[in-house]
Structures are given as C-alpha cells and as structure tokens.
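Section 5: illustrative case.
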C-alpha cells in the first residue's frame, strides 16, 4: 500500500505511523522496487478536493493498478463525483480516520469493496435522485441507459420511471399457445 499526503509532511508522518500499527498492511511506494509487489491501495490525504488533488488521483489511476482511498476533511456529493471519476473507491473523513477504521476500509477496498461515510452516501443518493428526476427523466433518459419502456436484461433491475415506479413491459408467457386463426373455447364456441 502506498501513501501520499500532498505536501503535508506532518500528515504523511502521522498516517504512515498509524498504518505501521496495522498487521494486515504493508507500506510501499507507488513505484516499488523490483522485490516488492506493486501496491493494491493508494491512500491519499487531502483537506479538500481541488484541481491539484484531481491531477494526483488521475496520475495514480493512469500509472498504477492501485485502488485509491481518499482521506479528506471536507467533501460533499458533488465533489465526490469528481473524485470517483478519477479512481477513488473509498472515502474516509479525517475525523473518522482511526487506525482500526483505516485498516477495515483498506481491507475492504483491496477486496474490490468500497466505503463512504453514511451521511455522504445519503447525500450522494439524494443527488442521484435529483439528477434522475430533474435532468435525465424529463429528457427520457435513465442512469441504466434504458428507456422507461425497455425491459432490463436478465440479472439487472428494471429501470425506474421519473415518478419512481418500476417500468414493466409485459411479455407473453413462453408456454402460451399462439393461433393463426381465432382459438375456439371449449365446447366448440368461438
């Protein structure tokens, strides 16, 4: 695992010392020597999301296989979207960055998991709902990429309409008989 604290040596020393206490974490650089495997996780510390941070996260995404965890002081749903688009898979608020919590999030993220603080997740879901209802829905678009009248492929949830109901397209039962001429009811009547 690699750690980067954008030009903040005190925070870098603190997080590095904290992570050395975790038995399941091995610290390396983003570009380790030949004897060390490349890091699965890159932990990035920041105060807020700005262009410099986004450049750093893009570089990590472009030059390594590491999944990025962002430890940050201030973030909202809109800036979270910017971070996710450049590879962030988990977010920890600095105020919640205890050794045990860091180790848990690092372990989850290394296993293709993700983590968001509860309030940030609520804000993100509200933002997605707002975008669907106010921006995409009125244009006939959906996050699923399907129009509200298209059936979802097997294994995917059916798309929601702009009013929140599930869009269902009836299909004939596979065993239903089809007749080229009108079918007769029992007893010979049509």
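Designed sequence:
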């Amino acid at each position: 695992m690699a750690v980067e604290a954008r030009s903040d040596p005190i925070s870098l020393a603190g997080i590095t010392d904290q992570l050395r206490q975790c038995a399941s974490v091995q610290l390396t650089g983003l570009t380790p020597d030949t004897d060390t495997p490349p890091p699965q996780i890159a932990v990035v510390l920041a105060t807020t999301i700005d262009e410099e941070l986004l450049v750093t996260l893009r570089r990590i995404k472009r030059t390594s296989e590491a999944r990025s965890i962002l430890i940050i002081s201030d973030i909202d749903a809109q800036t979270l979207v910017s971070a996710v688009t450049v590879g962030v898979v988990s977010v920890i608020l600095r105020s919640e960055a205890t050794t045990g919590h860091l180790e848990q999030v690092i372990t989850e993220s290394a296993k293709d998991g993700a983590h968001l603080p509860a309030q940030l997740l609520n804000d993100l879901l509200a933002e997605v709902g707002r975008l669907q209802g106010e921006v995409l829905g009125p244009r006939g678009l959906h996050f699923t990429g399907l129009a509200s009248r298209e059936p979802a492929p097997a294994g995917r949830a059916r798309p929601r309409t702009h009013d929140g109901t599930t869009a269902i397209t009836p299909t004939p039962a596979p065993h239903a008989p089809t007749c080229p001429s009108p079918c007769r009811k029992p007893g010979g009547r049509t």
